[in-house]
Amino acid sequence: MRKKKIYFILAILFICAGSVKSQVTIGSQSDPHAGSVLDLSKVSGKNLGLLLPQVSLTSATNWSPVSGTKTEGMVVYNTGSVLTKGVYVWVVDSENPNGYWSKVSGGSGDSGGGDTGLTGSPTDWLDANTDLTGNGLAGSPYTKACPNPAVVLTAKSGYTFGAITPTGAGTVVSGVATFTASGSVVISKDGKSGTIYVTVGTCETEDPKKYDPIDVTKGEYSISGNFCYDVFKSDGGTDCGNLSERSNSFASGYEFTYTLSTNKTISDLTFVVEDNNATKITTGIVTNQTAKTGKLTFVTNIKSLFTSGEKKTITVHALFVDQYDQKKKLSMIVNVQDCWCCGAKTLKADNVTYGWLNFMCYNLGAEDSGKDAFAYASGAINGDLYQWGRPKDGHQLRNSSVTATLAPIDIPNHNQFIKTTASPYDWRSGGGQNSRWGDGTANQDMKKAANDPCPTGWKVPSQKQWALLLKEGTTVINNVSDLANGVNIANKWVWTGNGYKVGGALYLPAAGIRNNGGSAPTYVGSDGYYWSSTVNGVNAWGLSFSNGGVYPGSNYYGRAGGMSVRCVAE
């Protein structure tokens, strides 16, 4: 009897084993879909969903806090604030072999036409005069001018709008849909309809403090736009230049555009202006996501808000989400002042005739630093170090690679720093070619040459232009007291610990030098070396300085050395 019971149990197990499948259905007794391993079917009489594991992700590239070994295809729901909330999958690809969390896209950005039968897209349904730039037709935020962020859509002839959803998000009157909040509207023609989704943004709704500041990697992110404005109120005399020598930054209006440039994929771009002045000097900044721009607007009575020679600052922030779904912030400090934006007085040898030279506010390579142009900021505004006569080609980066092969032409066509330890200490074989940055003369106002790395409207200053910031013909002043007090020179030169404040509107950081052997930069923070366009035989003149003196015309250098470039207006 005992054996019969055992045989009976084994028989049942074999029968059950024969019915085990590699595909499973949960929620019903029906067979699973042929293409699925797991088929979650609706439970009769109930509306249920799938609850994924909920974790707080700490970084787009950090597997933690998920346990176990990194596994491609792992899916979780992020509840944290570092990355935007939502469903994420762990992805490994050729660009990211170590893996990263990729947010599963989706939502209300579908612009209609599919299920509802109306062919085409919103651009076919709306009047040509309707502003479709970034207006949320694909779910991307749209910001209209402050303080009224209405989005207005006008239907083409023959098309009809329904009511805007949700109630209160806007109104529809005579073929015009006006959104004052985010929502959607159904548009119909000939019995067929489609849905248009609109996301209405408001001015500066984002808090910059919620975004992580990034160290700007060259070639990845940069903000372009004015970093200084002159309110043009009163004569500045010794430090700031007279009105007859200056230009009014607001002569043509009060709106100015800032642009975020990047070769990376970003989303949710928002420009924000941080204006902490007691009386605000701006009214806001409006984002155009498609063009990656922000239009900054100043108050029209801005001149009345400044006292003579006063300086105020604002900060322009570009807030965005990077390719790893991390919130990032790129910032630019902007100076607004009753003064030349950046420049200094000049003095002729007669000790009577004064003039003014307008300089760029930053060394080349620091234009996108976003830092105050008048503060050393631990070297953040030091910029690049150029070999004399070379164009902007990558060699100027402080950590660029080095080659010992001299260039046979004026444009090497590579990004390496060319080292040489033999006379004439020139990166170009045979030396010569004195007009790489100037015209080969010692003229004060020589023209810009083909290899000049300065942007349009600017050039490398001549040796005589550097000397004019002290006094025409000056070669050296090593009396620190005379420099600081402006004795018999055009400007006060005040040593700040890491550079010189020249008058009231120019700062030259002690950015160091890279020797002709291509070693790492030295004397950073203690000495400044700035090229001129003027040659001296096989060498070239430069302005050098330290806390012990200023030397605009006593030192010349081999052209293979790496030195700072501060551009002067043409």
Question: How does this structure look, described?
Answer:
With about 575 residues, the protein is mainly β. The protein is about 5% helix and about 30% strand. The strands form 13 sheets. Strands 15, 17, 19, 22 and 23 form a 5-stranded mixed beta sheet that branches. The protein has a 4-stranded mixed beta sheet with strand order 3-4-5-6, with no helix packed on it. The radius of gyration is 33 Å and the shape is globular. The N and C termini lie far apart (about 110 Å).
How do the strands and helices of this protein lay out in sequence?
Layout: H1 2-18, E1 24-26, E2 38-40, E3 54-55, E4 75-78, E5 86-91, E6 100-103, H2 122-125, E7 142-143, E8 151-154, E9 160-165, E10 170-173, E11 176-179, E12 183-189, E13 192-198, E14 200-201, E15 212-213, E16 221-224, E17 228-230, H3 237-240, E18 255-262, E19 267-274, E20 282-288, E21 293-298, E22 311-321, E23 327-337, E24 343-347, E25 354-358, E26 386-387, E27 402-403, E28 417-418, E29 458-459, H4 463-468, H5 480-485, E30 493-495, E31 499-502, E32 506-509, E33 528-536, E34 539-546, E35 549-551, E36 556-558, E37 562-563, E38 568-569
Keywords for this structure?
570 residues, mainly beta, five-stranded mixed β-sheet, four-stranded mixed β-sheet, 5 helices, 38 strands
In terms of per-residue confidence, which ranges show pLDDT below 50 for 5 or more consecutive residues? 1-20, 105-116, 133-148
Main sheet summary: 5 strands, mixed
Helix content: under 10%
Quickly give the structural class: mainly beta
Number of strands: 38
From the alpha carbons, calculate the radius of gyration and give it in angstroms.
33 Å
Q: Kindly state the mean pLDDT as a whole number?
A: 81
Strand content bin: 25-35%
Distance between the termini: 111 Å
Tell me the overall shape: globular
- Output the number of helix runs: 5
